[in-house]
Amino acid sequence: MSGVKNVFFVDDDEAFLYVVERTCKAIDSVGRLDIAVNGQIALDMLNHWLEENTPLPDMIFVDINMPCMDGFEFLEQFKRMREQTSALKSIIPIVMLTSSQHEEDKQRAFQTQVVNEFVIKPSNVAEMEYVIRHQTEWQADISNAV
Fold first, then answer.
1. Max Cα-Cα span within the chain
2. What DSSP assignment string belongs to 51-66?
3. Within its chain, how far is the Cα of 80 from the centroid?
4. How does DSSP assign 77-145, residue by residue?
5. What are the C-alpha distances in Å from 135 to residues 24, 54, 117, 132?
6. Residue 60: beta bridge partners?
7. φ and ψ at 93, to 5 degrees?
8. What pLDDT does residue 37 have?
9. Which residues of 125-142 are buried (b: 16+ CB within 10 A; e: fewer)?
């Protein structure tokens, strides 16, 4: 199926992830859904996929506040990995999906130069579906234009 995306969520909120899983199952443009509950696990998963030649995610949604390694630390480590591994350069967009409404968090996310969008976590299933659908369709439009 053309336009189907592998989506990766890096977030530790179990209730939110439950909504993400249910929502992604209802969206045709989402193929595989992977989840990591913190930034370190996300980096480990990316390294494993690279080693095993497993298809990488087409897009990553990252929360800010997580245990072990928060979203900002993940973004900095991912940026370093991306500079050294050409396969990671294909992962666009990276969306900071967070409950933070602080302007300084938004600025800091964009300063990493790997975040394409900063989105406030939706408060209900319909909004979550819109966010995921919008991002996967946006990515499909970008891929088709290239």
1. 39
2. HHTPPPPSEEEE-S--
3. 17
4. HHHHHHHH-GGGGG---EEEEES---HHHHHHHHHTS---EEEEPPSSHHHHHHHHHHHHHHHHHHHHH
5. 12, 22, 9, 5
6. 8, 94
7. -90, 165
8. 96
9. eeebbebbbebbebbbee
Tens-digit pLDDT profile for residues 16-63:
999 899 888 888 888 899 999 999 999 999 999 999 999 999 889 999
Contact (CB, 8 A) for 7 and 24: yes
Q: Tell me the pTM.
A: 0.87
Asked if residue 12 has pLDDT above 80, the reply is yes
CA distance 136 to 120: 17
Rg (alpha carbons) of the chain, rounded to whole number: 14
Q: In a 3-state reduction of DSSP, which class is residue 40?
A: helix
- Which helix (DSSP H) or strand (DSSP E) does residue 47 occupy? helix 39-52
